[in-house]
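Bug: token stream looks shifted between consecutive jobs. Job 1:
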Amino acid sequence: MPHRLMTADETMHYLHLARTDFDALVRDREIPFEKQGDRFLFRKKEIDTWASRRILGLTEKRLKAYHRQSSAKVAAAALSATTFMERLIATEFIAPHFGAKTRASILRDMVALAEKTERLSSDSKDLLDSLTEREALCSTALAGGIALLHPRHHEPYMFSESFIVLARALHPVHFGAPDGRPTDLFFLICCQDDRLHLHVLARLCCMCQQTPLLEQLRTSSSTAEMREALLAAEHESIRVA
């Protein structure tokens, strides 16, 4: 699956993009593609990497526009309800006293946290290897002390059900954030469906940028409070979309 080629229409729908936006990316060669005669083809493996890096790097205005587009397309495709945090993350998926102190131990312990959800179908080493590959391409850490970890490839066999785990580190770790500051909040996004993954990634970015979520996660005294902050932030991000 990661190596298959997609047509222009398939890629446009996969990325939740409007035709004009997609055509502009192709015209300006901002998106990786191959040409066979008059046909533009897109290698899924390259598109996955490009898409996640693009979402993490969007400005607030462009992220908001993308999130609005992806919300409409995901709803139309019946991939998810309007809100989905409630079914993706439970209180037991949250670690408020995360002791990892290095990049390697962060990845390892986040995979261990994923195992506890009982939604991990494949060998945990597969997930760890995929996370390591993704971080080697470009850090998933963002300004503000947050990282949105995710595997490089999303294969349906890896998870019995989509989920998110969250860890609040006791010792902030330098994780490659663009502002050079350490990271203390780590999400791990594990989605069965690639298109849903991109939508979840965009929504979490919006929640962090447009609501007081990060401050609330840092000051919450329990996993229940942290989860409630997530649910409230999701509703707020949808309201202002």
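Job 2, same session, no restart:
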Amino acid sequence: MINTAHVEPGGSALVLPLSDDVRLTKFSVGRMDNNCYLLQHDDGSSILIDAAAEPGRIARVLGDRGPDVVITTHRHQDHVGALAAVAESRRPRTVAGDDDVAAIERQTGVAGTEPVQQGDLVTAGGLRLEVISLVGHTPGSIALVLDDRVLFSGDSLFPGGPGKTAGPAEFAILMDHLTERVFDRFGDDVVVHPGHGDSTTIGTERPHLDEWRARGW
């Protein structure tokens, strides 16, 4: 059975070793129980996924160093609430899906965000994340995969189904992208860390793809 990597808003951070030299810290922030993910390499490099809220708490988890990069999975306000504060205090590179960059910059005032697309790589020291574009939850939603073993899915995939979409057309696009770019590619043991709530695996969710399409959400 998968460790669901459960964390509570305001609760303790969870540290998970991913390899001999990479560790993941997962913690929940804000009133919408947003997950923040901090990847750290033994060489001192680090990447933060979704500076969602509570910049003071994020700073405490970061400690005295980093992050080198902040990646925002999509434009929604609950995922960018601490981005300006982290960007100002830490001066990281900021990265987001190309079709969400303008909206993120308008909301946060953080300029110079690097746009990324399907297949791009985001690197910092020994850390290397591949970008997977999953259009539907927002036009520029992205997921990120580490070593074809760990997927950070933003709000595009959760235990029990895809993320919310604006209508049938967006839902169809998201399901197509999830099928082709995630489920057709990755094995059942790949761990999925979503933007909210507990983690899951590809194998746990795979049997339900037809069910999700049929219900339309």
